[in-house]
Amino acid sequence: MRRTPIRMCVACRKRRPKGELLRFLLTADGFRIDPTGKLPGRGAYVCPDRPECWQEKKLRRFAGSRARALAEALAALLGGRDGQNTHLPAG
């Protein structure tokens, strides 16, 4: 029997199965969304279905001064305030 990996959202600190969270990387060029969860580098996870987790204030813990840019990127990717647009890019 395989165990399901558990990860924690950097914003709300809720633990969930890895597949339910969205992984992103902080790179020298900015942020990179990792829908596969397999890109190399230090990543963090955020709840894709909870818009309150995409707020700049909540993301400062991970992104520091670049939290605003990350919050805007997540809102654009995941869709407004209701979180209905959960279509992730393929690459």
UniProtKB/TrEMBL annotation:
InterPro entries the UniProt entry points to: YlxR, YlxR-like_sf, YlxR_dom
Give the Gene3D superfamilies listed for this entry: YlxR-like
* TM segment ranges: none
Lineage top rank: taxon: Bacteria
List, for all copies, the residue spans of the domain called YlxR: 7-62
Q: What is this protein called?
A: YlxR family protein
State the organism of origin. Answer: Thermus thermamylovorans
